[in-house]
Structure formats: C-alpha cells, structure tokens
Amino acid sequence: MDRSRALAAHPVTLRLRGALRLAVDAILPPRCASCGETLAEPHGLCAQCWPNLAFISHPFCGVCGVPFEYEVGQRALCAGCIADPPEYTRARAAFIYDDASRPLILRFKHGDELHTAPTLGRLMARAGSTLLTDTDVIVPVPLHRTRLLARRYNQALELARVLGGALGDFSPPVVPDALIRKRRTPSQGHLSRAARARNVRGAFIIRADRRTSIAGKRVLLIDDVITTGATVRACARALLRAGAQTVDVLALARVECAPYIHF
Q: End-to-end alpha-carbon separation of the chain, Å?
C-alpha cells in the first residue's frame, strides 16, 4: 500500500478522535510528565521543565553517543570505544541522567508513573529517529522474574511499546520476551565499571522459541538509563550470538562522562 494512503485517516474518523480527545481532556487534562503542570497538549513537558533537561545532540561519539563539548566531526569516537569497542553498532539517548532528570526517571521506574511513558518514549523516538528507521525488531532489556514480580512492570518494555508505534504502520514490531535475564543480578547502582561488567556477564540468553525473530534482523535494544554500558553490551552479545545482523541501543538517558576524542 502507498505510504501516504496507509497513513491517511478518514475525515469522519479524525473528527471523532478530536471529539473524544476533547471529552477526555475536560475530565483528565494533560499534564507535564515531570511536574504535573496542566498542559495544552498531551504527552509533553511544561515550559519550566523542558529547559532543565540536558538533551543530547551533536556533537557526540559516533558509536556510544556520549556527548562531546565541541564539534569534532561525524566520525569522531571517544577513547572508550577505541580502547574497548562495544558489541553494539550505535547507542543513543534522549538526555543526560543528572539532578534534573533523575526524579522524572525514578518516578517512572519505581513510582508506578506509567502515564509518563508516552512522553518519555516520544523523546526517545526523537533522539533515535535514525536508529528506528534502520530497525527490523525492537527488544527491551529484561528484568529478572523476581524483580518483575516486585516492580509489577518492566520500564524498558513500556518504553519499547511506545517506540513500537512511533512510525505508525511502518513501526518495527516489539518482541517483549526475546531476551531472558536467567539469573538475578545484584543492583548495579553502587558498583564500579569493572564490577558492573562482571555482574551481568552471562546473565542474558535468548528464548529458544524467539530465535527466529532475531536471526538475520537489525535489532534495536531498549533500556532506560545507560551508565557504563555493561548491561546493554551483555544483551547485545546474546543477541548477536543468536544471529542478529546488528544491534543498536536506544535509551531514555545516559550518564555523562568526559571522553577523550579520536578522529
């Protein structure tokens, strides 16, 4: 089907959707995902919260996406990616994980604020638009089953579901259970880079009945926050061993570091 026809909607349908949205907004007005301030449009941030987030844009490392302080060219890589190239091809994140973004992320991750997922997912789609168009299948980083029972939802999966509709009818499918965290790893929060890598080594496998969904595909791996990259690297290794053609990574936020640059 022609792309324009596939994305077109019938005028009557558009009017019905508009009326329904007005009715819903009258009862539950859209609010800022960060502070709760009432908004004119749904799934956004208010004028006060938007400037506080450190959105990532060029220049950044061509592989891991860590931001540079000055323009160095599209192919510049940070020292970390030169010394120890990651298994994934590209990683991108919407903004820096810092004092301004931390409360927003933690409320979504641990505070049951799932209503913010559409806003956060849209920010990720904006940051990873190139990755999305180069993707065959979307896979979230999994939680161990015991942690999933305690938390009741996987934040990476909630973000993946939003991204799975970002391109409308042309969105890549989401395979929510392709990856399994086969052992419960201790929290990574206070571990060093080396300890984080040891902590997740061999922790992820591919479900046997999902291998056909991965083999030969360009996979987009979804996570909430990239810190040292140990978790997404371990997941990428498992996906590549299962026959994935490539693995890209898209996260909501990443920890900022001060990389040396290689041209």
A: 44
Are the C-beta atoms of residues 232 and 39 closer than 8 Å to each other? no
CA 45 to chain centre: 18
The tokens for 229 are 């990259």
pLDDT digits (tens, 9 = 90+) for 88-98: 999 999 999 99
pLDDT in tens, 46-66: 888 889 999 999 999 999 999
Q: How far is CA 243 from the centre of its chain?
A: 22
Most confidently modeled range among 5-9, 111-115, 216-220: 216-220
Q: Could you tell me if 144 and 184 are in contact, meaning their C-beta atoms sit under 8 angstroms apart?
A: yes
In order, the DSSP letters of 166-210 are TTGGGPPPB-TTSEEE-S-PPP-TT--HHHHHHHHTT-EEE-GGG
The pTM of this model reads 0.82
- Distance in angstroms (rounded) separating the CA atoms of residues 71 and 27: 47
- Domains in the chain, ordered, with CATH? 50-262 (3.40.50)
Considering only CA atoms, which of 157, 202, 164 is closest in space to residue 182?
A: 202
3-state secondary structure of 139: strand
Amino acid residing at 187: S
The DSSP symbol for 29 reads -
- Which strand (E) or helix (H) includes residue 225? strand 218-226
Closest CA to 85 of 103, 62, 69: 62
